C-alpha cells in the first residue's frame, strides 16, 4: 500500500544546500518536492497558488527574508508546517520565527540529519488528523504523547522539547 504523500516546498538561496536537500528529500518515500525557489516573492506567490504540507525555509534569501515569507503564510487560509533552516542559530531569530508560525527551527550546520525524522513526524501527524476526520469524530481523541528528547547531540545547552506534537528547540 502506498502511503500519503507529503508535499514539501523548499525556499533556499544556496545552490549547494538546495541540491543536498533535494537529494535528501528524493530518498524519502512518501515525500514529494513540489518546487524550490530562492526569493521571498517567489515563495509567497507559489504558496498563494499551490499550498504545501511542509515548507523548508531559509531566513536569508537572495531577495527578501524568510521572516517575510512567515508573515505572508500567517495570513493564508491553509498554513503548512514550517521548518526554518538557518546558519544563524540565534535565540532572537528562533523566537521571532516561532512567534510568526514556524514549527521547527534548525541549524543548517548540525541539525540537517534530523530533517527526515521531522518530516516523517509531520506526515504521521497529518495522517492522524485525516483519520480522525474520516471517523466522523466531533471531538478528536488525545493524541499519543511523543517522547521528549533531551540534550541534542550537537549542542549540550540546547533542549528539544515536545509541545502539542511539535518539536521546539529551546536555548
Keywords:
171 residues, alpha/beta, 5-stranded parallel beta sheet, two-stranded antiparallel sheet, 5 helices, disordered C terminus
Can you tell me about this structure?
The chain is α/β, with parallel strands linked by helices. Helix content is 35%, strand content 22%. The chain is built from five helices and seven strands, in the order βαβαβαβαβαββ. The strands form two sheets. A five-stranded parallel sheet has the order 2-1-3-4-5, sandwiched between helices. α2 runs parallel beside α3. The longest helix is centred in the last third of the chain and has 20 residues, at 115-134.
Entry summary:
By secondary structure, this protein is α/β, with parallel strands linked by helices. The chain is built from 5 helices and 7 strands.
Rough outline: globular
Main sheet attributes: strand count, strand direction, barrel closure: 5 strands, parallel
Average pLDDT for all residues? 80
DSSP strand content:
15-25%
Give the helix tally: 5
The helix content is 25-40%
Amino acid at each position: 500500500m502506498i502511503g500519503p504523500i507529503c508535499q514539501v516546498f523548499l525556499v533556499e538561496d544556496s545552490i549547494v544546500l538546495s541540491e543536498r536537500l533535494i537529494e535528501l528529500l528524493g530518498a524519502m518515500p512518501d515525500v514529494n518536492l513540489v518546487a524550490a525557489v530562492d526569493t521571498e516573492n517567489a515563495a509567497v506567490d507559489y504558496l498563494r497558488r499551490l499550498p504545501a504540507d511542509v515548507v523548508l525555509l531559509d531566513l536569508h534569501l537572495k531577495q527578501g527574508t524568510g521572516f517575510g515569507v512567515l508573515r505572508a503564510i500567517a495570513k493564508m487560509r491553509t498554513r503548512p508546517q514550517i521548518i526554518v533552516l538557518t546558519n544563524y542559530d540565534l535565540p532572537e531569530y528562533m523566537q521571532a520565527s516561532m512567534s510568526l508560525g514556524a514549527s521547527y527551527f534548525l541549524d543548517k550546520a548540525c541539525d540537517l540529519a534530523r530533517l527526515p525524522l521531522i518530516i516523517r513526524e509531520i506526515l504521521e501527524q497529518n495522517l492522524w488528523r485525516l483519520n480522525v476526520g474520516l471517523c466522523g469524530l466531533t471531538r478528536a481523541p488525545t493524541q499519543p504523547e511523543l517522547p521528549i528528547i533531551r540534550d541534542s547531540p550537537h549542542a549540550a545547552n540546547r533542549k528539544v522539547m515536545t509541545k502539542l506534537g511539535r518539536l521546539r528547540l529551546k536555548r
